[in-house]
Amino acid sequence: RPCVWKILMAAMCVALLSGLQAQDLPRQVSIILLGATGDLARKYLWQGLFHLYLEEVGKGHHFRFHGTALTSTEQGQEVIAKVLESLSCPGDMASGHCAELKAQFQQLSEYRQLKTPEDYVALSKDIEAQVEHEGLRETGRIFYLSVPPFAYVDIARNINSSCRPGPGAWLRVVLEKPFGHDLHSAQQLATELGSFFQEEEMYRVDHYLGKQVVAQILPFRDQNRAALDGLWNRHHVERVEIVMKETLDAEVSFQSLCVPSSVPCYTPGCPQASPGW
Ligand SMILES: *[C@@H]1O[C@H](CO)[C@@H](O)[C@H](O)[C@H]1NC(C)=O
């Protein structure tokens, strides 16, 4: 009888432990930035990832950041090392604390070339091995595509076939401006991407859309109700024109401004013949 009791106890312990293992292991999210050596990534995205890290690290989440591009590993590592060195903390953070967190972030970030289907397979395997090695549980993977749209489909194919996380973990793919170059190419791209990803797995963003300015229009009106209510309405506003000055890649960004069909395009260089874009 004591033997049965022992076996029962052991079985219960195993069940408890495996339950614990599945649920209570610290969770990791892997963030894979494609186009990590590009202008936008160097100027904004790495800094954005660092801020995300600063906000989330205290909440018990674990992160890994994989910067990737077509650039050779050696050259890319050099670029990324410089970018990581230049990251800045919020102004109110003590410099010692900032240095410590920056060093942690640098430790968690790597650069690797992501070019061939084999590279994608290797990335996925490396993530799995690292998560297991550190006793973590993979919660999800975010692929952030800071690449030209013509590269989307190949990348999407590789992610779908070789880089999906295991069962129980989610996949998110962020697609960044411009989404095709006219209505037809946008629809075609949407169809192709839809064959690789579920709708809830895709996020389409356009940072050149003057998002911050546009987002402030309503709050501005709201805060100035007394003065503006009688004027800011459809009887008095014929159109909203948004102009954004860019020195870099100006043609592309002007085109991007024409995306929402409710905002007519009055910017020079916009394709007038294709309304909606
Ligand atoms: C996506 O990947 C799955 C699993 O490898 C595969 O069965 C499916 O055919 C892929 N989808 C496309 C459109 O290639």
Give the SSE order as H and E letters.
HEHEHHEHEHEHEHHH
Strand content: 5-15%
CATH-defined fold name of the largest domain: Rossmann fold
The major β-sheet equals: 6 strands, parallel
Q: N- to C-terminal separation?
A: 78 Å
Name the CATH homologous superfamily of the largest domain.
Answer: NAD(P)-binding Rossmann-like Domain
What is the arithmetic mean of pLDDT? 82
In brief:
This protein is α/β, with parallel strands linked by helices and 277 residues long. Helix 6 runs parallel beside helix 7.
Account of the 3D structure:
The chain is an alpha/beta fold and 277 residues long. The protein folds into two domains: 206 residues, Rossmann fold, CATH 3.40.50; 32 residues, no CATH class. It has a six-stranded parallel β-sheet, with helices on both faces. It is globular, with a radius of gyration of 24 Å. The termini are far apart. The structure holds 2-acetamido-2-deoxy-beta-D-glucopyranose. 2-acetamido-2-deoxy-beta-D-glucopyranose binds next to helix 6 and helix 7. This is H6PD protein. One of its GO terms (biological process) is pentose-phosphate shunt. GO terms for molecular function: glucose-6-phosphate dehydrogenase activity; NADP binding. It comes from Bos taurus (Bovine).
Ordered list of secondary-structure elements with their pairings:
Elements: H1 2-24, E1 27-34, H2 39-56, E2 62-69, H3 73-85, H4 95-108, E3 109-113, H5 117-133, E4 137-145, H6 152-162, E5 170-176, H7 183-196, E6 202-205, H8 211-223, H9 225-228, H10 250-256
Parallel strand pairs: 1-2, 1-4, 2-3, 4-5, 5-6
Helix pairs in contact: 6-7
The chain binds 2-acetamido-2-deoxy-beta-D-glucopyranose.
